[in-house]
Amino acid sequence: MLTVTEDRFALAEVFTIARGSRTHADVLSVTVARDGVQGRGECVPYARYGETLASVRAQIAGLRDGIDRAALQEALPAGAARNAVDCALWDWEAKRAGRRVWELAGLARPEPVITAFTLSLDSPEKMEAAARKHAARPVLKIKLGTPDDMARLEAVRRGAQRATIIVDANEGWSAEVYRDLAPHLLRLGVAMVEQPLPAGQDDMLAEIARPLPVCADESCHDRASLPALRGKYDMINIKLDKTGGLTEALALRDAARAAGFRVMVGCMVGSSLAMAPAVLVAQGAEVVDLDGPLLLAEDRAQPLRYDAGGVHPPEAALWG
After folding, report:
1. How far apart (Å, rounded) are the C-alpha atoms in residues 32 and 42?
2. Are residues 215 and 264 in contact, defined by beta-carbon separation less than 8 angstroms?
């Protein structure tokens, strides 16, 4: 039996990107209950991809009872609905077998991974203050994508002079803006820029110099996305809510590496239950951005552990 609930987690602070602000993370939690065993998964429907809590819930409600992971890949497209069910089925399989998901998937035992910490889009003064507050973190991710980005970037670098900085433009720049900004990104030690141009309008990336690695986010969902990214991007951002779950995320990671792409593993703003499967995908990734729980004021009962070593693999009580 599949059950779906809507859960809301308060954020520690207002979180803003170029598309808007939020004070809560609204998620769907899926439970698979069979043979006296329960498995759980979580997804974050994303309006950018035409998803709402109601539409994703309806997709899940349309699944036949007893569906397995193989049939699920055909029953639903890549997206949030398939993600929550896929991860719940992995959790259920592991708990029924008395083993860990990484064992079932034939993966090495996962280790902690260093994660970026995201600074919300704000005024340069407030972003500098936030950077100073979090200057000891090894990697800071900056949300940009507005006409005033240089002042914000300069401010963050002043506030965190030693941190590695990665930039997410959230499709907010034109090719001309990116061409003008790129030398300054290099000057300020930015290590990578994520989705500078809108998906579907990013062909110019194949024609202009890419002096620092460019990562596809909105332009990359699953393995079917990869052929169109060649020559335009150096890296892909794997998010389970885009791939439609752990099953496709692992396959996408392997296919991307085989095609010569570097790998980033990212997340929507969700709880530890949403991050837990992604920790498995993040093993060996060049960039990890699984900071969702760090942005929350409240979390699941058995949350992931974050410390100086990074984000640790989940305990079985949480997932997997």
Report:
1. 12
2. yes
pLDDT tens digits, 22-41: 789 999 999 999 999 999 99
Coil, strand or helix at 189: coil
Do 177 and 154 contact (CB within 8 A), yes or no? no
Residue 74: strand, helix, or coil: helix
Tokens coding 295: 């942005």
Nearest CA among 155, 98, 97, 102 for reference residue 124? 155
Dump pLDDT digits (tens) for 83-130.
Answer: 999 999 999 999 999 999 999 999 999 999 999 999 988 899 999 999
- Cβ partners under 8 Å of residue 50, min gap 6: none
Mean pLDDT of 223-235: 97
**pLDDT for 144:** 83
Active site residue ranges: 143, 239
Residue with tokens 């994703």: 56
Rounded CA gap, 104 and 90, in Å? Answer: 9
Q: What is the C-alpha separation between 4 and 150, in angstroms, rounded?
A: 43
**Contact residues for 217 (Cβ-Cβ < 8 A; gap 6+):** 168, 194, 195, 237, 239, 266
| Contact predicate 46/19, CB 8 Å | no
pTM of the model: 0.95
